[in-house]
Write a structure and sequence with these properties.
Blueprint: E1 2-4, E2 11-13, H1 26-77, E3 84-89, H2 92-102, H3 108-114, E4 119-125, H4 128-139, E5 145-151, E6 164-173, E7 178-189, H5 190-205, H6 212-240
Parallel strand pairs: 4-7
Antiparallel strand pairs: 1-2, 3-4, 5-6, 6-7
């Protein structure tokens, strides 16, 4: 028989159905049950697709807001406080893994309540001041609700990781209703992003168990990246004066 995973919508075989001696009776019953499971699986797959679509639309909404800020600033000042933007929508497999990792019940309602990084956007900026400017510009918009802020620039993680993390909610207007959907927003400098990318690849290569010597070097590199950000900000200030956001 088969069992249906309520998150992925897929089926995983847990036992082999043996041929039964009475094909006109019990075999037909089992065939009917298998058909019912397959139909249920298809319905769950449709529900999951509809569920994930909301988060895709939320990414579109926030991406548009960021694009407007970027284009407006570039038009007025001939440069941008945004280097590049990446988006990510968790796959069904990633959702399932995250739910199991945090002990979340495998239902869409539970996932919606307990997992807030299904939709993710990363904004990379030249300077630290740009990071906070983008946060201020987005959080000041009337339809953006800032749910949580984790400032790993002011207080880096123990491994040296630096970035500004926000959970924001934006309204997504569906055909029959509006729903507020959370989006995880990571805003960081080019130096922070480079360090985080290398650190991630190293931890992936070592399956999370990184030798102490490498961890020490990563920590030193994080401090070097922070020094670089500070130096570049100082140089910009010497050229343009004290700056608390993008230079106009």
């Amino acid at each position: 028989m088969t069992t249906v995973d309520p998150i992925s919508g897929g089926r995983s075989t847990i036992a082999t159905v043996r041929s039964l001696p009475d094909p006109s009776g019990e075999h037909n019953l089992i065939t009917g049950l298998v058909d019912l499971v397959e139909a249920s699986s298809d319905e769950m797959a449709r529900e999951l697709a509809k569920f994930r679509m909301r988060y895709k639309f939320a990414i579109d909404e926030v991406s548009t807001k960021i694009a407007i800020l970027r284009e407006e600033f570039e038009h007025a000042h001939d440069h941008s406080p945004i280097e590049h933007v990446r988006t990510r929508l968790k796959s069904p497999d990633s959702l399932l893994a995250k739910a199991r990792k945090i002990g979340c019940p495998l239902t869409l309602d539970a996932v919606e309540q307990n997992i807030r990084d299904i939709a993710g956007i990363r904004v990379v900026c030249p300077f630290v001041s740009d990071v906070y400017w983008i946060m201020e510009m987005l959080s000041s918009q009337s339809d953006v609700d800032v749910v949580e802020v984790e400032d790993y620039i002011a207080e880096p993680k123990a491994n040296g990781y630096r970035s500004l993390h926000l959970i924001i909610k934006v309204p997504v207007y569906l055909s029959d209703r509006a729903v507020d959907v959370p989006v995880e927003l990571q805003i960081r400098t080019i130096a922070m992003d480079f360090w985080a990318s290398v650190e991630h690849s190293i931890y992936y290569k070592y399956d999370g168990t990184v030798p102490t010597s490498l961890r020490d070097e990563l920590g030193a590199a994080a401090r070097t990246a922070a020094d670089l950000d500070a130096t570049m900000a100082r140089l910009r200030s010497e050229v343009h004066g004290a700056v608390h956001g993008p230079i106009g």
